[in-house]
Amino acid sequence: MAKAIMVQGTMSNAGKSLLAAGLCRIFKQDGYRVAPFKSQNMALNSFITKEGLEMGRAQVMQAEAAGIAPSVLMNPVLLKPTNDVGSQVIVNGEVLGNMSARDYFKYKKKLVPDIMKAYNALAAENDIIVIEGAGSPAEINLKSDDIVNMGMAKMAKAPVLLVGDIDRGGVFAQLIGTVMLLEEDEKEMVKGLIINKFRGDKTILDPGVEMLEERSGIPVVGVAPYLNIQVEDEDSLTERFETNRTVDLIDIAVIRVPRISNFTDFNPLESIQGVSLRYVKNPSKLGNPDMIILPGTKNTMEDLLWMRENGLEALILKEAAKGKLIFGICGGYQMMGETLSDPHGVEAGGTIKGMGLLPMDTVFARKKTRTRVEGSFSQLTGAFAKLSDTALEGYEIHMGETALKGDAKPSTNIQDSVTGERKADGAYLDNVCGTYVHGVFDKEAVAEAIVQIIGEKKGLDVSGMTGMDFQAFKETQYDILAAELRKHLDMKKIYEILEEGVQI
Q1: Distance CA 313, CA 281 (A)
Q2: Which pLDDT value is given to residue 237?
Q3: What residues are annotated to the active site?
Q4: pLDDT score recorded for residue 393
Q5: DSSP state letter for 359
Q6: Which of 114, 170, 443, 491 has the most CB atoms around its CB within 10 Å?
Q7: What is the pLDDT, as a whole number, of residue 238?
């Protein structure tokens, strides 16, 4: 049976996911079989496994760091917010249904058998399990029947490393305050503190570290630096959305709709030197991009109405009429059509007018399409012709079917990796293109073709702006992450904590 160690945070976005990934990589490098685990994830960034099951993207990233294939066992419960007070509940990779926050709070304890079955299956196959918590263990209103922080630590008998974010200030209050709000038996489980996202001269921090250890009675096992590592973010707390990027040679604007999902789709474009990729939620910030991307969303109809109300839709339509490149993925692709109908109340219900960029209609269905796909772009004409026959792979995850009409033609030809079915997907017309495939830009040739299309349109020499093997690039990032953490974490102490475990 595997030994376990758990990373909890004083708040959301304290850096738990990244530190857990770094530990996975270090343990892998040291010769251990290691797997990540998070009992309950709340995120709109999800992933489809080779079996056609849905899981949180953070555990996919951690699995990559551990050098193993992602499995739904690593994230048995996924909550995908549908609005401010409710979520779609996914258990073992399949949709259980929609629940209000209150109903889920009452229900969640029933999921413990599913959680422990998944955890024990992983533990039987590995030497070490790196468990990630969620939010903070000190949220006293949520501690009853906890299944993701101290409740999970107890079930797994896992010692806890508590992480605080110094970049946002008040890290000593974060750590001490969190420890003080824990029950006595929970405090005993916290075996190490980590100060994360530190910038500057550590010697100035040292007196504070000593006082922190004295007041908490818990050793500080590391002061981790602020790391600019390009790996996939967990959810909408990503700093990507808040970064003011200067316009580069090639400027791509992603519309930052309220329920944006799977924005990891755009990381390969963002990684190309000379490309600025900006997330835009206000019409005043759109500027004059070379391409506008409509991303995936958990609430296609509501996010389209949001764009309609704030003026972004009108601006996008104006840019499209000028010949500007418009690309839509999943929900963003659905928005581009003439109508969106929801006869079963999957989203908002009823029927609304689409953007009218592509002659097609979308009808939402009760059943979610979840599968991995591979294939290529079709023989395209018009602005996106350079994408013709370019290989692609990714996954589909949506609750709608789209029917083309008029002059619209499929943009891709793909094969369902789960069922083996071959099908045409997506649509294009002139300077507008869309697809249901997430990860469509991941292959080097696709990202390069986009850059070349824009470069030719602008009369730029883009021969030096090459894409990359994004998977290989991520591997280098995981190695950098591990190397940096080895410098700043007391790995000897962390191994001791892991070995000793906890007495419950």
Answers
A1: 11
A2: 46
A3: 330, 438
A4: 94
A5: S
A6: 443
A7: 53
Q: How many Å apart are CA 450 and CA 445, to the nearest integer?
A: 9
Looking up tokens 């190695």 gives 479
Q: How far apart are CA 89 and CA 152, in angstroms?
A: 19
Helix (H, G, I), strand (E, B) or coil at 201: coil
Tokens of 235: 């959810």
**For the chain, what's the residue count?**
504
For 28, residues 6+ apart whose C-beta sits below 8 A from its C-beta are: 34, 65, 66, 67
What pLDDT is attached to residue 171? 94
Alpha carbon distance 219, 248 (integer Å)? 45
Q: Cα–Cα distance between 257 and 275 in angstroms, integer?
A: 21
pLDDT for residue 242 = 61
Domains of the chain: 3-231+474-500 (3.40.50.300), 250-464 (3.40.50.880)
Q: How far apart are CA 402 and CA 400, in angstroms?
A: 7
Pairing of strands 94-100, 86-91: antiparallel
The pLDDT value given to residue 234: 58
Nearest 5°: CA angle at 24, between 21 and 30?
145
Counting as low any pLDDT under 50, the low residues of the chain are 236-237
Instruction: Supply the pLDDT for residue 352.
Output: 97
Helix-strand-coil split of the chain, %, nearest 5 = 35, 30, 35
C-alpha–C-alpha distance, residues 88 and 104, integer Å: 10
For 417-424, the CB contacts below 8 A with 24+ separation are 417/50, 417/371, 417/372, 417/373, 417/374, 418/50, 418/51, 418/52, 418/371, 418/372, 419/371, 422/375, 424/378
Q: Do 191 and 218 contact (CB within 8 A), yes or no?
A: yes
Predicted pLDDT at 367: 87
How many CB atoms are located within 10 Å of the residue 343 CB? Answer: 12
Label each residue of 252-293 as H, E or C: EEEECCCCEECHHHHHHHHCCCCEEEEEECCHHHCCCCCEEE
Decide the pairing of beta strands 360-377 and 412-416.
antiparallel
Nearest CA among 163, 161, 157, 169 for reference residue 13: 163
Q: Measuring CA to CA, how many Å separate 217 from each of 106, 188, 190, 204?
A: 35, 10, 10, 21
Q: Rounded distance, CA 73 to CA 499, Å? A: 24
Q: Are strands 77-83 and 86-91 parallel, antiparallel or unpaired?
A: antiparallel
Round to whole Å and give the CA distance between 172 and 211.
Answer: 9
d(CA 144, CA 368) in angstroms, rounded, equals 32
